[in-house]
Specification:
The structure is a homodimer of 236-residue chains. The first copy, chain A, contains eight helices and ten strands. The first copy, chain A, is of the alpha/beta class and 236 residues long. Chain A starts with a strand and ends with a strand.
């Protein structure tokens, strides 16, 4: 059998591994020795909790700074006959996270790629939002500069209204409060906004309100949700 | 503690439940008695395999024909103090499947909504595609009429090229071959197309090629992949 590149979802918050991956997938992860990971420290902790002896494992790093020409050596274990795992820092590898280039290279060299089911903050936010999940777009990060950001928010709101396409986006956690203020200043009163904060953690928060309602119930990004990861969803 | 509406992912193919949900989530499902499900037969089989005594469970149905005014009674268990589960036919409830209206109603009545991690054919296809997962859109079904369908394919290809937004869509399985032919007739030779067929099943197939390459390696939707579910992804 050909060695496989497994795409291994990782925890969104500090939860036991028995809340992250199905047990059959955990078993398969436990058979691996080679891993490409976004962040060594968190990957080691995750795999250790999954019952692997991390001291015996081989790790390579792949993150947003990895250049295309650095991908080739990362697949060396596959070429030597060993299956390996790709793990990003939180959630699904290669979705809103690095890894797509490595997956493409594995395809190109004819190695099977096997995605495992697991937590996706985007999908968990969308399914719990109560907003339209029949058509949606994930837009990554919005521009940082105020003018460009407001223009982008207006565009997304317009597209949502015109096409019925629900709009998802994220922000660097310490800027969540500023983004929320921009949304409330820029969007129509009737536009619905979902905040999905710190998903899967015991203190997670998911709420969908209109802009008008959020203005009367401002989320506390300064203290309560300080630097917590948040998925924003908008439906006009 | 308030009763909770759990959003429970379901299998994409005929696999053991230990390959679908994390064991902590399975434990929580086993404590439930009330379920709203898209399809009674498949939900019963799924829950039975998960170790529940289905004869003692209470089921209500929610599908694409359920009208908004029929949602209210479905949440009656929550109002009586019982947590309940929402299950769609395959994958995540309320994402490319019915359920969003029920989730919105639960929010409105102040009941916590808790999404569980699990298989999403869209995300598993995207992460394994090797295409851009930093920005993407799910477009549901394309139009059935030939003219409108080709126009839509052109639009999606154009948007992918202009905005760098990867485009996902699905088709009723018996029409997968016709859609693939339309894609090959309509798209530029350099456009990349991923087919993710029958995900999580032992015979699953994930492949990304350019239109030019696909024309020389046509997928066999007539026999081999006949009526198998397929996620299509396009990147210009």
């Amino acid at each position: 059998m050909k060695p496989v590149l497994y795409l291994i979802p990782s925890p969104l918050s500090d939860v036991p591994v028995t809340g992250v991956l199905p047990s059959d997938c955990l078993d398969r992860v436990r058979n691996l020795t080679y891993f490409v990971v976004e962040e060594l420290r968190t990957a080691r902790r995750y795999l250790s909790r999954a019952g692997l002896s991390v001291a015996t494992l081989h790790f390579s790093e792949l993150n947003e700074h990895t250049r295309d020409e650095e991908l080739y050596p990362l697949l060396e274990p596959l070429r030597k006959g060993y299956s390996m795992g790709l793990i990003s820092e939180a959630g699904l590898p290669a979705v809103a996270d690095p890894g797509a280039g490595l997956v493409a290279l594995a395809h190109k060299e004819g190695f099977p790629v096997e995605p495992m089911p697991g937590p996706s903050s985007l999908m968990m936010a969308l399914m719990a939002s109560g907003l339209n999940g029949q058509q949606f777009a994930f837009n990554g990060y919005l521009p940082v500069k105020p003018e460009a950001r407001r223009r982008r928010i207006k565009e997304l709101e317009k597209r949502s209204g015109a096409e019925g396409q629900t709009q998802l986006f994220i922000e660097t956690p310490y800027r969540n409060g500023a983004l929320m203020n921009d949304l409330l200043d820029t969007c129509m009163e009737s536009t619905r906004i979902t905040l999905a904060i710190d998903l899967t953690s015991p203190g997670s928060f998911i709420c969908t309100l209109t802009v008008e309602e959020w203005k009367k119930n401002k989320p506390d990004f300064e203290v309560k949700w300080h630097k917590k990861p948040c998925v924003f969803i908008l439906q006009a």
